[in-house]
């Protein structure tokens, strides 16, 4: 921990790379933690977008090249807010320049890249934390603690629905809807928030049976996916991700032996979105009390996660949601695609470095990959 002459703890200097849609959430998070962290620079390959963003938020350091920014500003934390295909390379360059990284979801485009990021962490002694802000709201934190203490008995069933709507205008942005640049379809880009939350809460999964379809949108990737999942605990799960659902919602349901816990929301939850129902005849008050108790309300925002990263930086420890911690989620999505495209259930233990899906989420299978190649050429 570095201190100034007057003994106060120095602020962490931060830079944002990619000044598009999600960058604002990072500025908001940094401003909420202004006591600990200071935004000193921004980078974007689009000069005009960079200018507008820096003027709007009063950012002094403006760069169109990441390496120049890293060399001149020496930021201690780099926020990666660029399209998915660039996450691994930009994260690794930032780690090698001595910074810690707070990288947007999805972490990267394939398991092979996740391993490269982890190797860069080991090489540099710096850490990467991927944005999974839903793990950091008080509802999820509370449920995780109650699962650990088995307050509601064993988990038996999970339902995880990301039924969202994205129209043709959304997919007109060139990097979206393409395997190469979006790193998969909505299973990876949209459903990943809820999927990651369920997997983080329920622990190791063992087998996935997947189905994907391109039912309406004119994109390379799927627009709906489904999965049936077995967990090591014996619990079963059902996952649906869609970008073709006019009434949008995110719905999660956990049935434990003693209670059902659910939430409905869209892009972020508060305590008010959770619902708790004890098993019929169960002592409602005792279980309800356990559910209602601390921690105090924390929303599922970037700021809640950034607070945890700042704590790790101050203490010099590994931050939450690094490559090792998000690996089960990346493996799950890889297995879902492999199962859907091959028509065979996928055991987690069978995912190896030799697997074609380890280094391409479409596994280079004819039905999905050639169309990809044609469209990529067309997009020039
Ligand atoms: N956590 C969330 O809730 C959430 C929500 C939306 C998007 N996202 C994620 O955030 C990321 C960005 O999404 P977006 O909607 O903001 O995209 P966007 O297209 O609006 O913005 C991306 C920006 O990155 C810039 N860029 C591209 N390559 C670059 C490079 N090599 N160096 C510097 N700048 C570069 C582009 O010029 C653009 O300004 C994606 O991974 C997306 O999945 C996360």
Question: Could you give a quick summary of the protein structure above?
Answer:
By secondary structure, the chain is α/β, with parallel strands linked by helices. Helices cover 37% and strands 23% of the residues.
- Give the number of helices: 14
Give the uncertain stretches in residue-range form: 372-380
Given the helix and strand composition, which structural class is it? alpha/beta
CATH architect. name of the largest domain: 2-Layer Sandwich
Overall number of domains:
2
Based on CA atoms alone, the radius of gyration comes out at 21 Å
Biggest sheet record = 8 strands, mixed
Tell me, rounded to a whole number, the average pLDDT. Answer: 92
Could you estimate the helical fraction of the residues in percent?
Answer: 25-40%
Structural shape: globular
Full CATH superfamily name of the largest domain: Dihydrodipicolinate Reductase, domain 2
- How do the strands of the widest beta sheet line up side by side? 13-12-11-7-10-9-8-14
* CATH topology term of the largest domain: Dihydrodipicolinate Reductase, domain 2
How many angstroms does the end-to-end distance come to? 48 Å
Which CATH first-tier class of the largest domain would you pick? Alpha Beta
Number of β-strand runs? 14
N-to-C SSE series? EHEHEHEHEHEHEHHHHEEEEEEHHHEH
């Amino acid at each position: 921990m570095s201190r100034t002459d007057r003994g106060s703890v120095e602020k962490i200097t931060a830079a944002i790379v990619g000044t598009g849609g999600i960058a604002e959430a990072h500025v908001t998070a940094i401003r909420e933690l202004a006591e600990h962290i200071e935004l000193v620079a921004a980078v974007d390959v689009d000069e005009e977008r960079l200018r507008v963003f820096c003027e709007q938020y009063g950012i002094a350091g403006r760069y169109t090249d990441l390496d120049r920014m890293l060399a001149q500003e020496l930021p201690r934390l780099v926020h990666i807010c660029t399209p998915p295909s660039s996450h691994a390379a930009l994260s690794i360059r930032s780690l090698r320049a001595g910074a810690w990284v707070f990288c947007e979801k999805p972490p990267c485009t394939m398991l092979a890249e996740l391993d490269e990021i982890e190797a860069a962490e080991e090489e540099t002694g710096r850490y990467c934390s991927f944005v999974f802000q839903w793990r950091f709201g008080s509802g999820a934190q509370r449920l995780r603690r109650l699962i650990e203490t088995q307050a509601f008995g064993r988990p038996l069933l999970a339902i995880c629905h990301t039924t969202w709507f994205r129209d043709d205008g959304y997919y007109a942005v060139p990097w979206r809807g393409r395997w190469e640049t979006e790193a998969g379809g909505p299973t990876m880009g949209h459903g990943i928030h809820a999927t990651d939350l369920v997997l983080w809460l329920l622990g190791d999964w063992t087998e996935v049976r997947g189905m994907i379809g391109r039912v309406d949108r004119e994109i390379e990737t799927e627009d709906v996916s489904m999965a049936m999942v077995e967990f090591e605990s014996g619990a079963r799960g059902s996952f649906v991700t869609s970008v073709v659902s006019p009434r949008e919602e995110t719905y999660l349901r956990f049935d434990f032996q003693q209670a059902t816990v659910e939430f409905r929301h869209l892009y972020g939850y508060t305590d008010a979105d959770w619902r708790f129902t004890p098993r019929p005849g169960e002592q409602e008050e005792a279980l309800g009390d356990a559910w209602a108790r601390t921690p105090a309300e924390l929303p599922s925002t970037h700021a809640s996660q950034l607070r945890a990263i700042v704590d790790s930086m101050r203490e010099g420890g590994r931050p939450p949601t690094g490559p090792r911690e998000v690996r089960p989620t990346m493996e799950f999505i890889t297995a879902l695609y492999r199962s859907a495209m091959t028509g065979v259930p996928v055991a987690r233990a069978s995912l190896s470095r030799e697997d074609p899906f380890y280094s391409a989420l479409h596994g280079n299978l004819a039905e999905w990959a050639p169309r990809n190649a044609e469209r990529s050429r067309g997009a020039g």
